[in-house]
Amino acid sequence: SSFVSFQFSFSSSLLINHQLSINNDNRLQALANMEAEQFHVPRVKLGSQGLEVSKLGFGCMGLTGIYNAPMTDEEGISLLTYAFSKGVTFFDTADVYGSHANEILVGKALKQLPREQVQVATKFGVFKMEASGMIAKGTAEYVRSSCQGSLERLGVDYIDLYYQHRVDISVPIEETMGELKKLVEEGKIKYIGLSEASPDTIRRAHAVHPITALQMEWSLWTRDIEDEIVPLCRELGIGIVPYSPLGRGFFAGKAVVEALPAGSFFATHPRFHGENLDINKAIYLRLEIIAKKHACSASQLALAWVLHHGDDVVPIPGTTKTKNLEENIGSLKIKLSEEGLKEVTDAVQLEDVAGLQAEE
Asked: H helices within 193-320, ranges in order?
């Protein structure tokens, strides 16, 4: 297909430049390396409305600074275009990330990519952030004005997947969905998503217009959606997009577990604080032991655990580093049997996790 051929030529140009300096003596090894680097992320249907995405998405929130300092535009664009070259084509942003800066950065990256081969997801509905938490807004007027703002910041004619970031309980979901349905009919958005919604809200929203995807936190140590939300999504044909699939970075590697960066967002999270962190380190060490059996890292095993929950599950880990992106992609190569999946699940007993889950 044109998609595959474009990606092959796009990534091949990167690889050829990378390989030119290699001596002839190492040509066979270089070819072997090139073959390994040609692994592409599989593509899956997200939901039952026709949206096709990469099996692994890219959560863009961190690019404009929340866990670390913001990346420069050049760095962020380079990382996103590199992700695309590897087959990661599903980019997740939101109007509230970086006070609009995140959408603007993603928009700049899109100018360097074939628009029709990228699936852009963004969100509306967080009206403002206060010390007490997020203030949601879901009126029809706000839906429309938010969409227009995102279209302009992203520099696109349409948004592939448009989520309500947080549900406004003061506005009937039917009103919010009614306006989203109009935006679909006008071609401004292609598919509708919800984030952090209750089962009742999901059913009511889906009755107005089919929901394509539900974004919820899901990781080895955050599993509360498994009892009711996941079965409901499968009943209705809604795809599941787990955010923070590496437990807010806890399972991302020893650097997080052993030494938090100064001023990091993680330092304020209950599970990363004081004696909670000391207790939770034992969980990480258990996972690390199992990972050695699979010849992978603990972070790859944690992400593979999420990926193995079904083709309708498309996690969106974020990173600011190419090596972490490569590691995330590598998690797709890990095959877990039912026994292997259970071993990983059992290694992280929820009653052993110290500290409360926190808001996104």
From this structure: 199-208, 229-236, 254-258, 274-293, 298-307
Q: What proportions of the chain, in percent to the nearest 5, are helix, strand and coil?
A: 50, 15, 35
> Are 235 and 208 spatial neighbours (Cβ–Cβ below 8 Å)?
no
pTM (2 d.p.): 0.84
Structure tokens at 56: 């692994």
Residue 307 CB partners (closer than 8 Å, separation 6+): 55, 56, 313, 315, 331, 332
Mean pLDDT of 152-160: 99
pLDDT tens, position by position, 212-229: 999 999 999 899 999 999
Domains parsed from the chain with CATH numbers: 1-38 (no CATH), 39-352 (3.20.20.100)
Torsion angle of C-alpha atoms 151, 191, 86, 116, degrees rounded to 10: -60
Residues taking part in catalysis:
97
Q: What 8-state DSSP symbol labels residue 224?
A: T
Stronger pLDDT, 288 or 282, i.e. the higher one: 288
Phi-psi region at 355: left, alpha or beta (left = phi > 0; alpha = psi -120 to 50): left
